[in-house]
Design a protein that fits this description.
By secondary structure, this protein is α/β, with parallel strands linked by helices. The chain has two domains: 233 residues, Phosphoenolpyruvate-binding domains (TIM Barrel); 45 residues, no CATH class. It is built from twelve helices and eight strands. An eight-stranded parallel beta barrel has the order 1-2-3-4-5-6-7-8, surrounded by six helices. Helix 5 packs across helix 6 and helix 6 packs parallel to helix 8. The model has no long low-confidence stretch (mean pLDDT 96). Bound molecules: 3-methyl-2-oxobutanoic acid. 3-methyl-2-oxobutanoic acid (KIV) binds next to strand 6.
């Protein structure tokens, strides 16, 4: 890899925004994919609570626990050398109180070794954000389609499609910038809405399904690699039919084992001929004694 590559910090991300360089942002939930994402040159990795669906098989993001998030965040951090790693605060890890918010955000930093945390919501979580920032932790905000509030939003619905919708989002964005978030993620809204919000903020603004005017793009790694087949949002570009490729490989393995093609001699461990002979003799002798 590039010798000059340095660990991405919040200062790096601010510099990229100032220079108009797009940040590449991707989720990862485990060691092997985080290793590859980091090697490929991704700037930011989110250990998203979407792992509830992509990796743990839940129907929504809501059931994933702090302990599960920490375990996955640790695996990702062990793999990553350069990217800025953000731990996503799961449902009920910050909603109850400022104290819960600080203690759980602190676990992502102290136990897992993340660089920052992300949490969903606007003005109504401003005090949580302020408390976490006051504990010295970098926070990313998340507005628009916020899956933890899916019930109140009426499902997975595109946000900010009206002037009123934009004004609500902007007021929330300004409130959480004031509370101390260092960056903001906008999810599922028209490009015009995201661009207008970005124009009014000083911090880097990233998007997932929020058009091309943001300071960087996030996608869910299982979506871009074709590893999550339950549904594919409109904004996803698929770069690999990973599910099909992996399934084909496993079917080939099944065929090889059943037909006796695997394992073959190149997969065998060596043994000296004399030792092999002794083993066969001793097996024959013990068989004879049993009879
Ligand atoms: O958990 C996640 O991956 C996220 C993105 C969908 C924004 O929060």
């Amino acid at each position: 890899m590039n010798e000059a590559r340095k660990k991405v910090t919040i200062m790096t991300l601010r510099g990229m925004k100032q220079r108009g360089e797009k940040a590449v942002y991707l989720t990862a939930y485990d060691y092997p994919l985080a290793l590859l994402a980091d090697r490929a040159g991704v700037d930011i990795i989110l250990v998203g609570d979407s792992l509830a669906m992509t990796t743990l098989g839940y129907k929504t993001t809501l059931p994933v626990t702090m302990d599960e998030m920490i375990s996955h965040a640790k695996a990702v951090v062990r793999a990553v050398q350069y990217a800025f790693v953000i731990g996503d605060m799961p449902y009920m890890s910050y909603q109850p109180s400022d104290r819960d918010a600080v203690l759980n955000a602190g676990r992502f930093i102290a136990e897992a070794g993340c660089d920052a945390v992300k949490l969903e919501g606007g003005a109504r979580v401003a005090s949580r954000i302020r408390a976490i920032v006051d504990a010295g932790i970098v926070v990313q905000g998340h507005l628009g389609l916020t899956p933890q509030n899916m019930g109140q939003l009426g499902g997975y619905r595109v946000q900010g499609r009206t002037q009123h919708g934009f004004e609500v989002l902007l007021a929330d964005a300004l409130a959480i910038q004031e509370a101390g978030v260092s960056s903001l993620l906008l999810e599922a809204m028209p490009p015009e809405t995201a661009a207008a919000i970005k124009e009014r903020l000083d911090i880097p603004v990233y998007g997932i399904g929020a058009g091309d005017k943001t300071d960087g793009q996030l996608v869910i790694i299982h979506d871009m690699l074709g590893l999550f087949e339950q549904f594919t949002p409109k904004f996803v570009k698929r770069y690999l039919n990973g599910g099909e490729l992996i399934c084909n490989a496993i079917q080939e393995y099944c065929g090889d084992v059943r037909a006796g093609r695997f394992p073959s001699p190149e997969h065998f461990y060596d043994i000296a001929g004399s030792e092999a002979e002794k083993i066969l003799n001793s097996a024959r002798e013990s068989g004879a004694q049993r009879r």
